[in-house]
Design a protein that fits this description.
This protein is mainly α. Helices cover about 45% and strands about 5% of the residues.
């Protein structure tokens, strides 16, 4: 099976499987946030504006960055790579937990 690449990294994406992805035993809000980060469809301010739920002039992140997009969410609180998300390691879980409580 061919490896799927993401636009944010050179690491392969999760491959289709009949088993749940790593992290499936996490609490629901963290699991949901982790999967939103993995698929790049989380509720960041940039996506909320794109979907019509937020004024486009209000996409600045709380940290001061110009735009809060999905790529920024991985680096805002701590550095987290796509591979971290795929593995659901401690770094990815910390980021998912943080954003599950904020957004």
């Amino acid at each position: 099976m061919r490896s799927v690449e993401t636009e944010t990294s050179n690491s392969p994406a999760l491959q289709p499987s009949e088993h749940l992805a790593p992290g499936c035993k996490l609490q629901w809000p963290i699991w949901k946030s982790l999967n939103r980060l993995r698929t790049q469809v989380g509720r960041c301010k940039n996506n909320l504006a794109k979907w019509g739920f937020l004024d486009p002039s209000l996409t600045q992140c709380q940290c001061g960055a110009a735009t809060q997009d999905m790529r920024h969410l991985l680096n805002c609180t701590t550095t987290c790579t796509f591979r971290d998300l795929c593995e659901a390691n401690d770094r990815a879980v910390r980021v998912a937990k943080y954003w599950s409580e904020k957004i």
